[in-house]
Amino acid sequence: MADGVTAVLVDDHPVVRAGVAHWLSTADVELVASGEDPAVAWDGPGATADVVVLDLHLNSVTPATAELRKLVEDGRRVIVYSMRSDDEIALQCLEIGALSYLTKAEGADHLVQAVKAAAEGHSYTPPALAGALAGDRSETRPALSPRETEVLVEWFQSESKEFVAQRLNITLSTVNSHLERIRVKYAAIGRQAPTKAALVARAIQDGLIGLDDL
Amino acid sequence: MPDVAVVTLTRRVLLVVVLAVQLVLMLPQLIDHPHAPPAWLAYALLTAVLAAVATLVAAGSPTVPPILAALPLGASVLATTALPDGASLGPADWGFGLVGWYLLLVLVDRPPALIAALAAHICFSVGWFAHDGNGDAGTAGVVILSGTSFQLGVLVITRVLHRDAELAAEAAAAHDAARTREELARQREQDLRAGFEGQLGALLPLLADLADERVSTEDPGTRLRCSVAAVQLRRLFAENDDVPDPLLHELTACVDVAERRGVVVQLAVSGTATPVPTEVRRELVAPMAQALAVAHGRAKVSLLRTATEVRVAVVADAEHEPPEAAKPNEVTVETSVHSGLVRSEARWRTA
Question: The whole model's pTM is what?
Fold first, then answer.
């Protein structure tokens, strides 16, 4: 594989597993293991995969947040892939330490970008998650600059970063760095997790964000 | 003319009649004939009643205490018993007719009491005539009939006036009520029409143009107007539905119309529901409805509710600019077109 990204998928629906395998293969990501049991991410080839794509609803009504926590605490880079689109659960997954939260209504493009970003230890914020962050009214939410809020809202509304860049008269990479800064601010609050700490450390190292901003 | 006015006017007329009868007709009879002294007491009693009633009427009092009728009755007894021998119901009997007028004056608004008092007065006079009269029953009968029939005639006229006044008052009240109902109905219809015109927006002129064949559905411009009107109408239907999240409900209704037209619409919602007044909802949804009406291909509608703002936005593939919407009062609307995409957003500050 070209850039050697490997992934493991935990999902209880065979059709989803097949679909995701196909999407990832067309984007040079190797799906090394998949199954309905979270054990596939701990044993065999899945144990060393760069990215874990985790379905939040595995044959149960209660979301698999405990599984997510275990994986994150082990330092795994996890993307939550869920059919649920409510803001609360999305924000909860970020708080635990997921690098992205994708709803199954969002297409292949977002999943591929999320996996590639996660493989590098970066966050990925799809439009629905941007909406959840913009609508976040919790008391512990980090302070965002007006520009960051505007990027978040425009991205949620248009689903096109080119459109956001054009509207706000900034470059595409500035849009991305605003989104990354927002996620770093979120990673800096709440409970500690290796992925969150890495996200913050890297952002400070890269000069994306200063200690004063946190 | 209400009851009170009829009674008061009747009393005023009767006051004049009684005064005239007492002074002009009866006083000479009292003076010319050898009455016993109590006759003068009776005359004084009657004069006192006249003064009392005149005072009450002048003071604007609508009623006269019925107990005052006791005085004319007392005067009747005094005057009759003080008559010279054999003068009962004859030319010297000044009291018979006058007491009748007095009873009428006091009890004109109480017909049963008046009849009873008159009957008592007549019975006593007749009884006295039988006891001390000259025996000329014919003359006495004529005196009784002429005096009493006059007084009963006045009573009947008063009752007729009274009834007519009541009927007139009822008719006037019914007329007023009908006028009020008519006015209310007219107002309600006007409100309804004004309300609907405001909300129907582009629909009424479009229907008029189609009906007059001024425009044709062959024309893409007309079809655009139709799709705008369809979205507006659908939103209006959804407006009064009882749902937990009316804003989202109205957005969904508009999205539904666009989807029927073949636009692939994605609706994203973020944040928790906040109460939004109807007027503000209309203004929030209108720009997005206009934009959806011109959309082709794909569109994304989003509803974002933060702690301080409600924002409804649409980004859609569109060839045309959306039609001009009515100027909003409560919300800020921004519409722009970038490389084949129309973006329209309405924002409302909650706090």
Answer: 0.62
